[in-house]
What does this fold into?
Amino acid sequence: MPKCTGHYGTPERIAADVHAIPIPSDSTLFNKTVKQICPDLKSLIAELRENEDFSGKADETVTLATDAGRFVLVGLGDTDAMGVERVRRVAAQAMKEASKFVAPTVALYSPLEEIVRKILPVSFEETVVAMMEGALMSLYSYDAFRKEKSDSKKGKIKELKLVTADEGYQSRLKKGIQEAQILTDAVELTRNLANAPANVVDADALAKEATSLGKKLGIKTVILNKKEIVANKMGGLLAVNQGSKREPRFIVMEYNDKKQRLKPYVLIGKGITFDSGGLSIKPSSAMEEMKTDMSGAAAVLGTMYAVAKLKLPIRLIALIPATDNMTGGGALCPGDIITMANGTTVEVKNTDAEGRLVLADALIYAQRYKPRALIDIATLTGAVVVALASHATGMMGTDEELLEAMQEAGGKTYERVWELPLFDEYGKMMESDIADLKNLGGKWGGAITAGMFLKHFTADMPWVHLDIAGTANIDKATDYQPKGATGVGVRLLTRFLQQMK
Ligand code: BES
Ligand code: MN
Ligand code: ZN
It folds into this structure.
């Protein structure tokens, strides 16, 4: 990832191989922006506008090689439709255009303070954060296993200068950069973990990752091994692990900023390092992407990183049940009845509904903390992808205040969530003839019946469930989400916790 620095000035005073300037379409603001940031290009840009080559519309870009340097103009679009998400996309589009040059140093200009204040309208810092998020998240590529790292490629952006042409905003610019650096590093950590193959990130490797992260951040980290998981009677985690030759792990991390006895927030991340479906085996086309079935766990680790680095004044616990779901000789069989950590019995109708089994043990474990809020995040159901595709995370829960706060955080970060109902009737669908519960609902409403299964283990704790099966991975890149793991959840949860503190 390129190094990011903050600057005040205009192109003739900022050394860069490419200057990227976001320009709104409103003619007054268009002219103001040109006049303040790049007056030397005034007549050239006026001509472009006259010929309708560039008018500042959304998704419009133009590149110019002039005596005064190389420029990328990016459309900020209509003032009505402008928002922080537009800023993220504009920044990403600017990087994409700049990358067409051999440009180790790129200067990206902030929208004028007047535009930020009147139109966006968010704080100047938030605009800077969005700019950097869009830019850095778009430049990510997973190349841990490639001989030629994309960073070393010719023309790769090495330094990103974020520039304001408004005097007196330098310190806010620097503050924004600092926060965005933490958030984008956290997203990168999460994407790297989720993109890593299952033979590299198994339960033990995930636990070791958590331990080393904990050390780096000064967060207490405890790993329960199989013996300790047995001692804790985590019947769900053990059942899912039965068909694997690798041992399960249960990861516990605790961040406590001021060592206060605050009621903690507890995050639970589904850590299925590979989901073959077990004996209810998946077709190979569906199995392919199942190395990312620990995206919830990865998002929780990324969030711990961000929260610790931002020094949020909260107490935060992370719980991650980790195992793969395999078909070995000892594998769990459809029809088996298992007993969870709190004594609840579950008839396993389908071994591919494994996420809820391991999450149930974590939800039970969380009760000891008497949490202020309990949030689980999991690639839980294909049904949520049917409902929402990759454009929203399915959300369910029992606490209005938390649900609303999550909704707000989703809007601010554009990691949008959409609530699904937990009506009692859906609970009925999880009743078993021979055990307390079964792990499979009917044909329909699969995202909700999975949520109802989890609700059974929340013991009236204020709880939110996030099903990221559709949002954690994408097969087609968008402006700042390259194909593969998106790192969804990190910015959402961090923002949520920032709001709640
Ligand atoms: N990990 C899958 C859910 C999933 C599907 C994640 C697609 C990402 C993309 C989960 O363990 C699963 O297999 N769920 C089953 C549940 C069913 C058997 C009740 C599903 O959704 O098909
Ligand atoms: Mn499954
Ligand atoms: Zn799964």
Observations:
- The first strand starts at residue 3 and ends at 8.
